[in-house]
Design goal:
187 residues, alpha+beta, 3-stranded antiparallel β-sheet, two-stranded antiparallel sheet, 2 helices, 30% helix
Length: 187
């Protein structure tokens, strides 16, 4: 009986030591999935903008239009919700890396973002009844205010991780700070 009690106690101590490591590993997997899904949305937004000359008015519009700009409407793996934060595009603002100007063809110095036009197919991108306008959508972010195990683009809170066209140029996003471990349980 004493041996059984000692064995059960030893197993309890080992489980208590391993549980935080397993939890940390699960959280890191969710972070990887958040980055993957966020970059999928960023790529879809970039493709939509190239094809139609404007940003989509909603995430649903990228999925409903043919050909699709994204494979599916992804859930946020951190909140396990379809409710992503939206990074809105500023209509008339200069494109990234360009000087403000009076316009010009896309890609030329001083070019401005095109003014949103109606959705390519009537009804696509319309907000749900009772909701205000959504677009133009330039990117997404998680609405979770939790602190992450890793850094992404120098930020360690999920809601600060922005997935836009600019994210595609640095997909790694500076995932960990120099000299700083990626999180608890790193071996």
């Amino acid at each position: 009986m004493v041996a059984l009690l000692v064995g059960v106690t030893a197993m309890t101590v080992m489980i208590a030591a391993v549980l935080p490591l397993a939890s940390a590993e699960t959280q890191r997997d969710k972070e990887e999935e958040l980055i993957f899904r966020g970059l999928q949305y960023a790529e879809g937004i970039r493709n939509f903008k190239r094809k139609f000359g404007r940003y989509p008015t909603s995430l649903k519009e990228m999925n409903d239009i043919r050909p699709r700009m994204i494979r599916k409407l992804w859930k946020d793996p951190i909140t396990n919700s379809d409710d992503w934060g939206i990074v809105s595009a500023v209509v008339g603002a200069p494109l990234p890396g360009q000087r403000p100007g009076t316009g010009g063809p896309p890609g030329s110095p001083g070019a401005r973002l095109p003014t949103p036009t109606p959705a390519p197919t009537p009804g696509f991108g319309a907000p749900p009844s009772g909701a205000g306008p959504v677009g133009p959508v330039a990117g997404v972010y998680s609405k979770s205010k939790k602190k992450a195990f890793r850094l992404y683009q120098g930020r360690d809170v999920y809601s600060d991780w922005r997935f836009t066209e600019q994210s595609l140029t640095d997909p790694a996003g500076g995932t960990t700070a120099p000299g700083k471990p990626a999180g608890p349980g790193v071996g």
